[in-house]
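ZP: hey, is the zinc ion complex queued? I don't see it on the tracker
AM: it wasn't, my bad. submitting now with these inputs:
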Amino acid sequence: MHCYYCGWRFEVSARAQSTSCPKCNRALMVSDIVVQKLSPVSSVQTCGRVVVKRSGRVIAKNVTAQLGVEVLGVMNADVASTGPVVIGPKAQWKGRCVAPTVVVNKGAQIAGYFEITGKAPSSSEGVESPTDAADASG
Ligand SMILES: [Zn+2]
């Protein structure tokens, strides 16, 4: 997993709910965060997923999720995800969103700046395309 503060990459046991970064020593949430009611916080950060249920509301400045975000209720935050974002049919979204892929179901209300990076989560790096055949003779 990655530390969402400093970007340090390290191993963590699969059963851990939370851990701390060996590099910057800050506490990290590992497990998924499921929001079922109003959750007025300044930031939501996890190395897992953030799930906002139908009855859930997240009103925050920043949301960071490494494995993805699923919103069925209300999301009112600037969201950065390195996993896919899914916005359900009755969801309301207000704020920025940066994610590799975004699925918006019909009927969802969204407002904000969406940046879809198209990058898959960094499991397969080093994919090369064979188009680099510049011929500079002349
Ligand atoms: Zn760190």
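AM: back. Residues 3, 5-6, 8, 21, 23-24, 26 surround zinc ion (CB under 6 Å).
ZP: great, adding it to the tracker
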